[in-house]
Design a protein that fits this description.
The protein has a single domain, classed as Rossmann fold. It is built from 3 helices and 6 strands, in the order E-H-E-H-E-E-H-E-E. Helix 1 runs parallel beside helix 3. About 30% of the residues are buried. A hairpin with a 2-residue loop joins strand 5 and strand 6. The longest helix is centred in the last third of the chain and has 17 residues. By secondary structure, the protein is α/β, with parallel strands linked by helices.
């Protein structure tokens, strides 16, 4: 899977996902730090990369419709998160990628589970 890690996820997160067999690029590697959310998600669309982020703004499907992008994963960490919490959440995400299709979906990834956004077809 082609992924782009937001600037807040670090090199260890990239290494974990690369070790799981994914093609991972990061916001800092592309000098997109402090880019607007629109600029970042459009870069993901152009590159065919799913976004992995801690930014809760991307969890709002009214602003970022999952079907319009290669995928969006928003990681939810405990209030006083440690690096270990982040790595465990990324490991859950990596495991989910190995078991389920992710393209054009919104996943909310928490310690121990993945919640999939399912739009209401009646809307």
């Amino acid at each position: 899977m082609k992924l782009k890690l937001d600037e807040n996820l670090g090199e260890r997160g990239r290494a974990l996902l690369v070790a799981a067999g994914h093609d991972v690029c990061t916001v800092p590697l592309q000098s997109l730090e402090s880019a607007s959310d629109i600029t970042l998600i459009e870069a993901c669309r152009r590159e065919g990369r799913a976004l992995v982020t801690l930014d809760l703004d991307f969890a709002n499907p009214l602003n970022f419709r999952p079907g319009d992008y290669p995928g969006i994963a928003v990681l939810r960490l405990p209030k006083k998160a440690t690096v270990d919490d982040l790595l465990q959440t990324l490991a859950i995400f990596a495991k989910g990628l190995g078991q389920n299709p992710f393209a054009s979906q919104l996943w909310i990834v928490e310690k121990g589970r993945i919640r999939l956004y399912q739009p209401d077809a009646r809307l």
